[in-house]
Amino acid sequence: MTAISTPSLKKLTRNRRFFAFLSSFLFLVSLIFLILVEIGNLHPRPVLSDIYFIKIDLSHIIPRSVPNAALINSIARTLGLHDFYQVGLWGFCEGYGDEITSCSKPKALYWFNPVAIILDELLAGATTNE
Known about the structure:
Elements: H1 6-39, E1 54-57, H2 69-78, E2 84-87, E3 92-96, E4 99-103, H3 114-122
Antiparallel strand pairs: 1-2, 2-3, 3-4
């Protein structure tokens, strides 16, 4: 069995200590980002509302190259569609322009169904005469 000299032992210990501190630091940074992802898009707050998985922008459904596109897009807004929908881990938020107007209640095992949400928005003010 070979004995390791003191200078080489110190060098090996220094490298191991450096990588242990580096991995601990990177773990703490990743933990902070994980917490931000989990609490992001829960409430319309300045920083947390910018953390989302996907953003569906409906402000320009019809391309601007189409004649009367601005009129058609404003009709979509008057029918009840919001300008955008942001999907997070626990729910979704919706809003007009750059401002979030409301968020859904946080729900475990949430899955985003854009068709159902958009149909609910379109039909929110509709009534039937029976």
